[in-house]
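task queued by scheduler; priority normal; single chain, no ligands, no partner chains; default sampling; output format set to structure tokens
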Amino acid sequence: MSIGILCLKNLFFFAVYIFSFVAFTKCYSVISISEFSAWQAVRQGMSEDELFPAWIGIIFNFVRIIFFISFAIYLCTPTIKNRFEFLLILPPVLLTCLFSARGDWFMIILTLLYLMFFIRSFSNKRIVTIGLVSFIVFLLIFIFSSLDKFRYAYAEMTELEKLEMLFSSYFINPVINFFYWFAESPEYADGKYTFRFFWAIKSALFGNADVVPTVLPFRTYNGVQSNVYTSLNWCARDFGLWWALVVQFFLGLFYGLLYKRFMKNDTFHLATIVILCLLIDPIVNQFFDDKFFSIMSHWVQRVIFVLVLIKTCVLIESTNQKNASNL
């Protein structure tokens, strides 16, 4: 399958770079007066709404979707022009990472990895090698970003103690938090978690909906605070564990149908594979927390951007009519 990029795409790059320049100036104004590290200073400004309005998140999604589509196009047709277009969008994407949580960093890397695995026919040996290298990169990012994150909060602890607390918080506490929450016989939310997206729409339109927060309450176990409960907990808060299992069953069907669509008749559907690779992130994060229903608005944005940019051929063009049907 051969895909080229229209010159119109350069307009998107121009807009992205204009936004990046504005974002950098705002970022620098916060960093220059902060006593924290650059990443911590920007994150603090974002959390207190001092840096950007809420719609900036939509821009982030838009920039990243262009990046993923450009990468997929380059993998399909590795021409010099396609490689240049892909690399051209890389700096703004890296800038969005400065304003984002670590979960977004992992989502970007995971999506790029699976685009490679699905589009390119790698040998099993090479897949294992790439997987091991990626795991090491994940681990290093996790360690160094975590040390920076807790540099000021736990100043009395050694670096080794911080790492021990960190791994306990993310790799032990999720199951324990879920168990203790379930053992408390909590009052169920009757759909406010699973269908939070629709409650948020109702709240925006009528202002009388009780929208649950996306950040769950912290718990302390063996002196370690954590607010991750596994992905099952999010839906279980509505009607119980049985409901969470039912939801997981239908999510499995959804992923299966999406993969079947990708493999249908041995043709390559660009929009389907980009969406499928984006949705790998919630699967990988299941042990920690929910990355599907809690941020449904982000998924709606991403899917819309993928379909608009690919299906309308605003962003790309196909070399022949047969390939156009596979977009």
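post-processing summary
- The radius of gyration is 21 Å.
- The first strand starts at residue 3 and ends at 5.
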